[in-house]
Amino acid sequence: MLSGDGLVVRVRPFRGELNRAQVLGLCDLAERFGNGLIELTSRANLQLRGIAQEDHLALLAALEGLGLLDLDPSFEARRNMLVAPDRSPGDLTDRLCTGLLEALPRLPNLPEKMGYVIDTGARAWLGEAIGDFRLELAENGALLLRADGVALGRPVSEAGAIPAIIELADWFVGTGGRDNGRMARHVAKAMLPEMWQRAAPRAQGWPEPGIDPELGAVLGVPFGALEPEALRGLVAQSGASALRPLPGRMLRILCPQPEAALHPGFVSAPGAPEMRASACPGAPFCPAASVETRSLARTLARRASADTDAGGSLHVSGCAKGCAHPRRADLTLVGRDGRFDLVRGGAPWDPPSLTGLDPSHIPDAIRSA
């Protein structure tokens, strides 16, 4: 993708994991070809920014050497998958992942951003993750396929799970879903048959930074911006064999002693104000943005930790697309013509309550709005 500072090159880790060599290799590539940062996306992918056009092919060759490219670019475009972060080789999550990878070429042509969630680990980790087709578990352990935007899912067997995804995808396409773009938008307009709405998934969860009993070390990455120096230090300090990017701008560190992964360059405790804030790169890095975003988001997040009126989730977006957090937040600031519009309890494209705010006036405007 072309951005204001060059190309953005996205990397989708296979089965949601990067081994040690791949992590260190990406650090080198970010410094050699990019702007010196590795970004975590909302779908637990990684991306390098600021790539010059003339360096693109050399970067792709280096990524291929690290084992991070699909042989077929069209297959990579369909491989929008999130898997439970406690996946182990041969377990249910891993088997479903294998089945879905094999089935992707047989699925109908879906809109580019549609994706899949396999949330069948020890707990429901991915309740807030974006995904149109969701393989989940009910409280009794039964496997469900649930369409995003619908509270209930369809019980399926393991053998029937992938055929059911194909069937639901065919229903989506056959009922005009391509025009709506995403499953949640489509089911709000189309009548999803009752057979797909029979059982509730278990309570939805979300990992927190710190030492988790099942996941081990989980670290937060403010604004999803990974600095290669800090990442190398984390790998060396922890002896990590692999990293698993998570939605919500977090990393699971696979290492012998989880406590060794508590690196000062990352958030290692729940409740950090920076982890409640989302912000895109903003200007000058994105041509759609007319405002700087991340320093404002960091300032507001820290103030909010001591100001209950400004607490909750915060999103500072360079434009109305809302790439960093394309959904509701308690407080959203949207850049427009060098200033900001303020949206309370909505998404970046919702009507604002205040418009044309100078950045220096925003804290007072938030308190008085």
UniProtKB/TrEMBL annotation:
Signal peptide location: none
A family per Pfam: NIR_SIR_ferr
Keyword annotations: 4Fe-4S, Heme, Iron, Iron-sulfur, Metal-binding, Oxidoreductase
Domain of life: Bacteria
InterPro entries with a match to the protein in the record: NIR_SIR_4Fe-4S, NiRdtase/SiRdtase_haem-b_fer, Nit/Sulf_reduc_fer-like_dom_sf, NO2/SO3_Rdtase_4Fe4S_sf, NO2/SO3_Rdtase_FeS/sirohaem_BS
Domain Nitrite/Sulfite reductase ferredoxin-like: 3-64
Region Disordered: start-end pairs: 350-369
Protein known as: Precorrin-3B synthase
